[in-house]
């Protein structure tokens, strides 16, 4: 079917890089699906910082975008139409996905999206669509960075930005793995971080002294989900033989002997996270839900840099 003959859908999209003001609600053709791809009716999408970084044009050269761009990589929805060979899923199945494709174009801030099966898992029944949409990208990042760090039961870990999208999952996963978790957040979020299973400390002036008071011999693992001070203080806070893993700064690898992770879509990892949510191990904190018409405000909320948990767009 040519694009002109495809049925249309409502979507939030932009045709030039810029601030959240470039986002418009518009009608676009429904996406094509390939042989190993599902057509998914979107119920909810969550916003990640990468969505605004792409929109601002800051990731050109690393992540290509093709206008019009429908942003959004996280989705919770219902399979409208399976692909030619997608035996894992049937029409009507409720799914979640970290739907990252090589080119940013047909994202999840829309009524329909194409979802390669390699990025998808069954939606956890214990979560609402809004909560489930918050799980994929941030949950996978937490899981894959903890795995890369080699964190083991009985070790101690310092998690920077413990109240954010990624940090909230990392605290819960690390605590579940039997680690002692210390997490940085502003005072306002300390009760929240404690509820996830970490001892909260404030970031900013005096961070090294506060962290050292809790771990005089240093930390076996540092997980950096914010950059800046987290990288600058790593040498002072790592235990001998300790390891830092960052998602914000490649210096963790090149200068600190640790690692730098770019989260990958992975169906098995996502299914593991979904099972943990169904078992009650992983909770998803939804800070705010915006209707699709207000997707620009959802992006602005994340751009503030101080969201607790996830911001979600309901479609
Ligand atoms: N490489 C990758 O694959 C990858 C994957 C996911 C995300 N990322 C990047 O990692 C970063 C975090 O992502 P996210 O989704 O977790 O973001 P997020 O949810 O927007 O993070 C917001 C959180 O950051 C906290 N925060 C802000 N400044 C802080 C500081 N100086 N120290 C400690 N915490 C601070 C805030 O806590 P308070 O409100 O308490 O200040 C807030 O809870 C973003 O830059 C994102 O682009 C990279």
Concise synopsis of the structure shown:
The protein is α/β, with parallel strands linked by helices and 315 residues long.
Distinct bound molecules: NADP nicotinamide-adenine-dinucleotide phosphate
**Number of helical runs?**
11
Counted beta strands: 17
| Beta strand % | 25-35%
Characterize the structure shown:
- It is a single chain.
- With 315 residues, the chain is α/β, with parallel strands linked by helices.
- It contains 11 helices and 17 strands.
- The strands form 4 sheets. Strands 3, 5, 6, 8, 9, 16 and 17 form a 7-stranded mixed beta sheet that branches. The protein has a 6-stranded parallel beta sheet with strand order 12-11-10-13-14-15, with helices on both faces.
- The longest helix is centred in the middle third of the chain and has 14 residues.
- NADP nicotinamide-adenine-dinucleotide phosphate binds next to helix 1, helix 3 and helix 4.
- NADP nicotinamide-adenine-dinucleotide phosphate (NAP) binds next to helix 1, helix 3 and helix 4.
Secondary structure: elements and pairs:
Layout: E1 8-13, E2 24-29, E3 37-47, H1 49-55, E4 64-70, E5 74-81, E6 94-98, E7 103-106, E8 112-116, E9 120-122, H2 129-133, H3 136-149, E10 156-160, H4 165-176, E11 180-184, H5 190-196, E12 199-201, H6 207-214, E13 219-224, H7 229-232, H8 234-237, E14 238-246, H9 251-254, E15 259-260, H10 267-278, E16 286-291, H11 295-303, E17 310-314
Parallel strand pairs: 4-7, 10-11, 10-13, 11-12, 13-14, 14-15, 16-17
Antiparallel strand pairs: 1-2, 3-5, 3-8, 3-17, 5-6, 6-9
